[in-house]
């Protein structure tokens, strides 16, 4: 049966891209499926993090998730480093994944930049840890933004190779679940996880440059809307957002070649839970001087309550820590069972 897992790095402020591409959808999935959500602090340290700031960011991200509507009582919310099986399974996966697979990862190339010799080894094996996160819970579906697609393909490759390499052992131990791989039925241990990438805002772009994705690391704060921004900041950033001089088209086809316009319409659609078609049938023909204030009002209406709630939650850090504690204990139960199975499958004496 379906099980959802997803993660977010506790590195600074969450922004509108994180919210529309991932978190808002995590919240929605909670009504239909068991969900496990994780602040991935072990992923964060693949790049340098100031220790005291990392502690703060982990609590902040947790507060943001709770404020956005993650229900840590019904579902599981925790920070990755508290469940040691993530690191343990990642090691086994390091021994399953191939150098060639990791060499193809575009995020590593982007993050390492020109000075690849000086990137951390953790940054290179980042996707293996991510596969471990997902497979530890044998998650079937992973809601993410477009930028994580390649990592999820790697996760499937890892699961498939593990199932093949250890297929007879898995069958011997009776740990397999029948699954369809192409034409053939095999008994696999890990599911072939499906990405859930959908909606009008799978790739929210910078407000200053329609060719760059909105990101925490952009030096310009005007390029993104942070979940902690107040109404004035939100309105100002939308007012200053880069656009072209034309009015909005009345059909989606008219957004082709207009990345900034496309981005603002996508953001509106994501916030309004509507399609881009619906947004354009209402706002098509309006100049940006008209559309931007409407977008700012909508963004403030949807985001300001989250920022308020986040501030309220952050006022009691001990309560945040208790939430993470309880989540880690429940995650560790599942993770412990998987890791025990994996050890038997691989032949690691327990
Ligand atoms: P991270 O922390 O960079 O981002 C968290 C989520 O936000 C999405 N996202 C975006 N979506 C749309 N537009 C954008 N501009 C934008 N920027 C970010 C990301 O796609 C992501 O869904 N490697 C992951 C964290 C991770 C993970 C996992 C995710 C670790 N283990 C296991 C899923 C399952 C990352 O760095 O996300």
Automatic annotation (TrEMBL):
EC number per UniProt: 6.1.1.2
Catalytic activity: tRNA(Trp) + L-tryptophan + ATP = L-tryptophyl-tRNA(Trp) + AMP + diphosphate + H(+)
Binding sites annotated in the UniProt record for L-tryptophan: 133
Pfam families (UniProt xref): tRNA-synt_1b
Record GO terms (molecular function): ATP binding; tryptophan-tRNA ligase activity
One cellular-component annotation, GO: cytosol
Compartments, record wording: Cytoplasm
CDD domains attached to this UniProt entry: TrpRS_core
Motif 'KMSKS' region, residue numbers: 213-217
Keywords: Aminoacyl-tRNA synthetase, ATP-binding, Cytoplasm, Ligase, Nucleotide-binding, Protein biosynthesis
One of the GO biological process terms: tryptophanyl-tRNA aminoacylation
Main enzyme class: ligase
NCBIfam families to which the protein is assigned, alphabetical: trpS
UniProt similarity note: Belongs to the class-I aminoacyl-tRNA synthetase family.
Complex formation: Homodimer.
Protein name: Tryptophan--tRNA ligase
Species for this entry: Consotaella salsifontis
Recorded name of the encoding gene: trpS
């Amino acid at each position: 049966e379906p099980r959802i897992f997803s993660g977010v790095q506790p590195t600074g402020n969450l922004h509108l891209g994180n919210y529309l591409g991932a978190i808002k959808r995590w919240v929605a999935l909670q009504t239909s499926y068991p969900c496990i959500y994780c602040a991935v602090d072990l992923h964060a340290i693949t790049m340098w993090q100031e220790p005291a700031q990392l502690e703060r960011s982990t609590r902040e991200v947790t507060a943001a998730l709770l404020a956005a509507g993650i229900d840590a009582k019904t579902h599981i919310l925790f920070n990755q480093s508290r469940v040691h099986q993530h690191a343990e399974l990642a090691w086994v996966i390091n021994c399953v994944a191939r150098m060639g697979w990791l060499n193809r990862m575009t995020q590593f190339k982007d993050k390492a930049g020109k000075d690849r010799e000086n990137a951390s080894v953790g940054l290179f094996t980042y996707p293996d840890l991510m596969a471990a996160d997902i497979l530890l819970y044998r998650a079937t579906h992973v809601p993410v933004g477009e930028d994580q697609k390649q990592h999820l393909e790697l996760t499937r490759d890892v699961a498939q190779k593990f199932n093949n390499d250890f297929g007879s052992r898995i069958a011997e131990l009776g740990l397999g679940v029948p699954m369809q791989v192409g034409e053939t039925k095999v008994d696999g241990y890990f599911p072939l996880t499906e990405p859930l990438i959908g909606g009008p805002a799978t790739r929210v772009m910078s407000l200053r440059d329609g060719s760059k994705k909105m990101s925490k690391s952009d030096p310009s704060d005007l390029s993104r809307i942070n979940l902690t921004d107040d109404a004035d900041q939100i309105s100002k950033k939308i007012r200053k957002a880069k656009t072209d001089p034309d009015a909005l088209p009345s059909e989606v086809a008219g957004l082709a070649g207009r990345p900034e316009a496309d981005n603002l319409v996508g953001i509106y659609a994501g916030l309004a839970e509507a399609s881009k078609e619906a947004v354009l049938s209402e706002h098509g023909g309006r100049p940006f001087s008209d559309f931007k204030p409407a977008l700012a009002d909508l963004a403030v209406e949807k985001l300001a309550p989250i920022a308020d709630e986040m501030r309220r939650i952050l006022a009691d850090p001990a309560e945040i820590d208790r939430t993470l504690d309880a989540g880690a204990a429940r995650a560790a139960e599942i993770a412990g069972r998987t890791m025990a199975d994996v050890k038997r499958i691989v032949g690691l004496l327990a």
